[in-house]
Recover the amino acids of this structure.
């Protein structure tokens, strides 16, 4: 697992994918391995030709679904499934209504991830006041980089650059 993780983090997605395939043969019920496979497959979307992109993205989704099947409490995989449906184009299976249902499930497992999911959906719908509030809530509920960077990304997308800088600085100096 750690070999595949290091390969993924170093950008060697093909090698990571091969190691993970071997791990799945021996440890098919390991939720973390399936979660990592989803991340690797998603990264490979940028490496394959145009005709394989949708298939690779769906392979990532399947990995996260397998992760949740193996470990129903795996919040990272639950959030990844939500994010897939919230952000993927319709041709690749994106579905905002399903994402909304999944957001409710994510929130039941973890209010911080639920707030990030809400922020993402509100932003997509153009409800920037509610999106900002949800992302800010996530930064309070989760003491980690992700929510701060999501809030900063939201600020960048809405051209609020000083707020983006402030969001990241708050995290750096916690």
């Amino acid at each position: 697992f750690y070999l595949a993780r290091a390969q993924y983090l170093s950008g060697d997605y093909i090698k990571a994918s091969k190691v993970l395939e071997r791990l799945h043969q021996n440890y098919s019920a390991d939720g973390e391995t399936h979660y990592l496979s989803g991340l690797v497959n998603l990264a490979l979307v940028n490496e394959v030709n145009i005709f394989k992109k949708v298939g690779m993205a769906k392979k990532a989704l399947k990995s996260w679904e397998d992760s949740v099947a193996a470990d129903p409490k795996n919040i990272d995989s639950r959030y990844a499934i939500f994010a897939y449906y919230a952000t993927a184009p319709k041709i690749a299976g994106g579905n905002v209504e399903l994402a909304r249902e999944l957001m409710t499930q994510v929130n039941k497992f973890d209010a911080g991830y639920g707030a990030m999911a809400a922020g993402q959906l509100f932003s997509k719908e153009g409800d920037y006041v509610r999106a900002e509030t949800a992302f800010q809530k996530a930064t309070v509920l989760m003491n980690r980089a992700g929510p701060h960077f999501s809030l900063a990304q939201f600020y960048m997308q809405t051209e609020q650059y000083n707020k983006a800088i402030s969001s990241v600085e708050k995290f750096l100096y916690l």
Notes: The longest helix spans residues 53-70. The chain is about 75% helix and 0% strand. The CA atoms of residues 75 and 109 lie 7 Å apart. The two ends are 31 Å apart (CA to CA).
